[in-house]
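Two proteins were folded this term; both appear here.
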Amino acid sequence: MRIALCALLLTALLVFPGVVPNTPGHLGSLVETALPWFGLGIPLLLAAAAVRRSLRGVAFALVPTVAWAVLFGPGLVPSPEAAPGRTDFQVLTLNVGGDRTSPHDVARDILATGADVVALEKVPNNAVKTYEQELHGAYPHHATGDTLGLWSRYPLHGVEKLDLGGAWPHAIRAVARTPVGDTAVYAVRLPSVRVTVREGFTVQRRDASAARLAERVARDATRRVVVLGDLNGSLRDRGLAPLTRGLRPADGGAGHGLGFTWPAAFPVVRLDHVLVRGLASTGSTVLPDLGSDHRPVLTGLRAPDQTSARGPKTPALRTFAEEIESGEL
């Protein structure tokens, strides 16, 4: 019965994390952020059942196993939508903060991805010129400001900095003339969060900025929208719900795992996201560590219900990741 009770409680937590109250200390948001890791309780339940030689205990332990597989298993299996040769353009997002980041090296790796639109977050002021010089040949159109940068192969217009509250503007918006038509692109870095003994999960400023961004996106008259950047939270976190109500995550269906991006050396949570409206994802890959404390996310996009007229992209999403890991780049 102890195994059964623990198994049912774990299942309830996985399926209904919203019942966890957000006070004190925004505990509910913290649970939702760490939700995939609650699956580690499953082998403990199975071990307890094995020690007691209880088949009923094993059966009860399989209940949260099924729940976890339904919630997170789709990220392990490629989606039919991610078929090669259907990409109209690719977008890349990367927080380039961290002590190990070399602008020259990062720029070289960005060029190797073949991305068409690049959003960089937390760009040091003394590195902006380097990125501009290194990326200009492939990305002649760009907009920078307040630690954010947006580089594009396509012409940009309607560039504006968005004040989402806090000490600095947390987003840049521009309209890119992509192969599928005008697309509003947002490069975003929401306020950071921390876990402290006194305040708990400090998400107040991030949540407020996310709500303001969601309001701005909802008012955006452009049919196609892409939000790229470091949202400093999991999309399961209720604090980012205003964004996910009007935008669709583009990071599913790649079949490359859970897609954690932070910290780069051993990722445990996905903070970096691609959200879209009026576009379909053809695959999303978290690339290997490029020297930042975040990992980059490369995503293929297309107009809904149409195949690309451009043919397959080279290098492909998975190919680039394999080349870095094998040392070919």
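Next, the second protein.
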Amino acid sequence: MSRNPNGRRSLLRATAAVTGSLALAGGLTACGGSGTAAESKGGGEKIVIVYSADGLKSEKGDGWYDKVFAEFTKKTGIEVKYVEGGSGEMVQRAVREKTNTQADVIVTLPPFIQQADGKGLLQAYKPQGSEKVNGADKAADGKWTSVVNNYFGFVYNKKELTEAPKTWEELLDGKYKGKLQYSTPGVAGDGTAVLVKAMHDFGGKEPALEYLKKLQANNVGPSSSTSKLAPKTDKGELLVANGDVQMNFAQSKSMPNLGIWFPAKDGGKPTTFALPYAAGLVDKAPHTENGKKLLDFMLGEEAQKLVSEVGGGFPARTDVKPTDANAVELTKLMTGVEIFEPDWADIDKNLASYVDAWKSATGS
């Protein structure tokens, strides 16, 4: 999610079939908003432009996106132009471009996919195969659907630490000072997840913020990209960082010191929650029909079977039951971890105030 064997939420890479980076603004302007009427309805150019949170594309070119996009281009002749950044960053960019829409498909994590919908960025489209996706993992009105399931988690350096920490409280120990970092809530999807999980585990906003205020003494500082933290952890620059199962599991294949764990409140059980990659068709997309074809393809059985084998994640379709070695290992990793379901409607509604409160508490 692989999910990004070498980095998750900020890998700007180009291949023959998949091109793009945040520096493509000028080129993409030429692709979107300035085409013919036919093109604006998706009938002209043989391209599709994807804005995505990082994690599904590999620096080595062997990630889930790399495989799926290349096969999509081979079968349809439609080239995928890819732009990557933090979950919130991608939504904010699409908002700025509403008068000159450039993206066809946006893929981001909760609560940012809900935020994208709330800002009028998405149009209803139920991809083929979406009927096999759990109701909690898609919008009832078809504005978005998960394409890869995933769970929030933390990573630690297995070489420097003989075993993973078990509780949030352990992270307040002085040995983690300058050796702990989590990505920025409100900017990175996984960073926002830190706040969501802390609010759940500590029983509300105030006790969570009280804890995170204490944790700030050990925190290295802000990071707009979660994907940058795993390599630092593998090298020992950090002992602990946040992440997510799919991305970190994929990264661990080339980062031998990377271990995954799930914090618990002192005296409680380790917990996590689903953090899927959710995709939506952008409203007034310059290549709408091509965007629909790509969404259909990503939810097809062939692509879904590659989610664990190649991406290190979990299929979004409930009828796809992988049995590959990665799937077995992932099942074992999740054993004994309590999974809760956040109130995404509340988080979407109050995200700005929660992030402001976090900034105030931590002095960020």
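Confidence is low (pLDDT under 50) at residues 1-42. The first strand starts at residue 18 and ends at 19. These notes refer to the second protein only.
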